[in-house]
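[Meeting: bench + compute handoff]

Bench side (C.D.) handed over the final construct sequence. Compute side (W.E.) agreed to return the predicted structure before the next meeting so the bench team could plan truncations. Sequence as handed over:
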Amino acid sequence: MDKELILLRITGEDRPGLTASVMNVLAKYGANIQDIGQADIHSTLSLGILIQVDEENSGRVMKDLLFKASELGIAIRFYPVTLEEYEEWVSRQGKNRYILTLLGRKLSAHQIEEVTMFIAKHGLNIDSIRRLTGRESIMNPKHTERSCIEFSVRGLIADKAELQKELMSLCSKMGSEDEGVDCSFQVDDMYRRMRRLICFDMDSTLIQAEVIDELARRHGVYDQVSAITESAMRGEIDFKESFTKRCALLKGLDVKVMQDIAENLPFTEGVDRLMYVLKKYGYKIAILSGGFTFFGEYIQKKYGIDYVYANELEVDDTGHLTGRYVGEIVDGHRKAELLRLIAQVEKVDLAQTIAVGDGANDLPMLALAGLGIAFHAKPRVVANAKQAISTIGLDGVLYFLGFKDSYLDERGRM
């Protein structure tokens, strides 16, 4: 017996039992469900169902559905689909799928317009849009307000790296015109859904300070050290050379100062929430820092971090810094090596790794990781990164990983 393919589009006010009522009609005529999808925004339903039904029953199905729609107070429309159209649609499944994430304190119509025009310009089609952040109160807004939507798009891309570069430029431009917006563009595959290892820079990423500057301030050499730090972070001088010079300026500092600094570290917005969620869902977490082990280990104890690799300051018998360091410097090259090593130890594919940092010495690990994120980074770093967060706190990383606020417990949503 000949079959017909019919696409049903149903819209109206959502209520319990609506889909069941529609399926009751379809089941009556033995219809096969080839595809189904539903979206619900503020109790307004949009439901699509692609059915295959015997040709002799197609008229009865549509008639009964129209009566049911009238009874339920919804609208229903019917669209015939040819077998050729259906098979062409089947052949595209799972291919050339990407996720574009749009993130900011608030998202304006202008920002969404710019991004959707960008999507269209590159010949990509939007399959679905979903909001990742929770609903925000208009009357009682939070100071940590954030907004994120995720586009699932499909299409052929000639040069993904060039597209990402153009998208980053667009987001940077919008950030100068509006409140600011961040974008991420990722291949939608199983690796994106199964990230397992995340490596953080420490200074100016997990904490809003450069600890070597804080040590220098206590020692009265802040101006000299800060100038070298900024030059190194901008990539203007070699990290090893700058690190050696800065350590030498700390000679004679009492190590007791370090504990006081550690106990008063200014943690970055969103760190508590991010660490809670990552630990709850089984991520391995590492600190790979050009800073110092003393502070990395302090943070490790606070959050239960799995690995810490940083630089060790040499201390003399009197409890004062010698102006030298012990062991190999953790610079940009070493950070990338450590990320690879930890991934091997944890039996994690590099595509399942994430790296987050703000400085030029973070670029090697950002490039190596499956997902590299420049966080409130220097211009040179942002220009060379594939994704960046500059508008909200460190918990913005969760949205680039695909977390949805409504899936988290109360503490995870804070």
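W.E. noted at the follow-up: Residues 160-177 form the longest helix (18 residues). C.D. will use this when planning the next construct.
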